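BUG: 3D viewer hangs when loading the predicted structure for this chain

Environment: internal workstation, default settings.
Expected: structure renders.
Actual: progress bar stalls at 90%.

Input used:
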Amino acid sequence: MHRCALTAYALAATCLAVAVLFRTSVRLTGGPAVSPRLRTRGLYSAFRHPQSRVARLRGQYRSERSLEGSIQSVNPGSPDANKTELFGDAKALRKLLDPEPPLDDVPSFALGSIALVGSGPGDPQLLTIAAHRMLEDAEVVICDRLVSKDIRNIVKGELKVAKKYPGCADYAQMEIYKWIAQGLREGKRIVRLKIGDPFIFGRGAEEVLEVKRLTGGRITPSVVPGVSSVFAAPLLGAAALTHRGVANNVILGTGYGRNKSQPAIVPYQDQTTAVFLMAIGRIRELCSNLIEAGYPELTPLLVIEKASCADQRVLLADLTTAGELVEGHKIKPPATIVVGEAARVLFPSEDYPQGLVAQDRLPIDTDSVKFLSQVAISQF
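Structure tokens produced before the viewer hung:
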């Protein structure tokens, strides 16, 4: 009788312990706080402490499940489908997302250096003198995918090109951080080359903060401004941003926010020009959002594709026709979108119908600018 009672008590105690562990693990996923009694008995720490085996296994499972789920849900016809092709399987993707550990084991005198450099819109003749010299002197250059080949050809050291394709930006950014950490550890002179200007939709400030994290503030990155496409692309496409009596304000936006969200549109204001970067892939949504924000449907819209490069193209449209024209002419990044009445000042409708504008029909000539830039570069 006593033996049966002891067995029953032991079974009840086991069930109670399992229930407590189950409730503890469930509560740790977002439920009420665990009681102090469980904390003192060590049951909470077994699940909560980041170095515990249980915590590591649970975190690993969640990470794998999240990554594998996102990969399996990708439409094979979508640009997102190239994540595994570019970076590897789910395990490689998970490893890529792990932050680089700080370089605490590297003495300050042995750390390399890094400069964030703007490459301008694309023509190497529009590089600043400082940027041109740094590209020639760098041991490692980590550049954006959209930096033109003509500018890449200036590089004399090792060239690494970021794989920032649609759907892969976050993975590519983490790969960039790993390249930066590797170069700093090896004492290299690094140039982080960005299209346009480093601090205009270029994650420049984020990368400065990452370098400070990696080095514990022992390295201060240099920054070299670039000729931003915000201003250069409209100019080279003959799209005025300001014009007396037509536009007195300029606003700047992008087509993609964090996690591929759509940034809010500033409500329509008279006598204002809006410039959008990295938005050509969402041209239809952008035009629809602009109309919802109060923009008249016939508001002029200009697109300058590959500004300053030999294959630059300029497209004239309005908010109702831009989507069809951009897709019909297969306009691709990098492209700058200019919206507003001032953008059409030099393009009277009787002389310039909607559609592509031949380069020799642009109402401005940039050959003299290119000639003077070439003379300056030849003097290095």
